[in-house]
């Protein structure tokens, strides 16, 4: 008995196998994407804290945008401005490609 690759039975088998493989792959991607976003947030936090340490002598808080933009991660860092007793805020931009963070000048809270 010869099987015609265009027969409905063969097409259904191929479709079923393809669907199973795609669903299994999608579950893996969904599971790892949560971990990837968490790792991204930790990278942004580390880089922004390091960058802000030149402007803020005592860092009292940080808030990281969970996803950022297509190109950048963002955070807002709160702390005591170096050489003063004043609490200030700096904005931080983290370049996803180079993995380098830069901070703005200070803002009053």
TrEMBL record:
Domain of life of the organism encoding this protein: Bacteria
Keywords, in A-Z order: Signal
Record's signal peptide: 1-31
UniProt name for this protein: Uncharacterized protein
Organism: Pseudogemmobacter humi
């Amino acid at each position: 008995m010869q099987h015609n690759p265009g027969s409905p039975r063969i097409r259904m088998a191929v479709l079923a196998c393809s669907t199973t493989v795609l669903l299994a792959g999608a579950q893996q991607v969904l599971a790892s994407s949560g971990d990837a976003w968490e790792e991204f947030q930790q990278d942004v936090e580390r880089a922004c804290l390091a960058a802000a340490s030149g402007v803020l002598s005592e860092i009292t808080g940080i808030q990281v945008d969970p996803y950022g933009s297509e190109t950048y991660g963002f955070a807002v860092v709160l702390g005591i401005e170096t050489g003063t007793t004043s609490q200030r805020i700096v904005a931080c931009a983290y370049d996803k490609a180079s993995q380098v963070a830069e901070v703005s000048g200070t803002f009053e809270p």
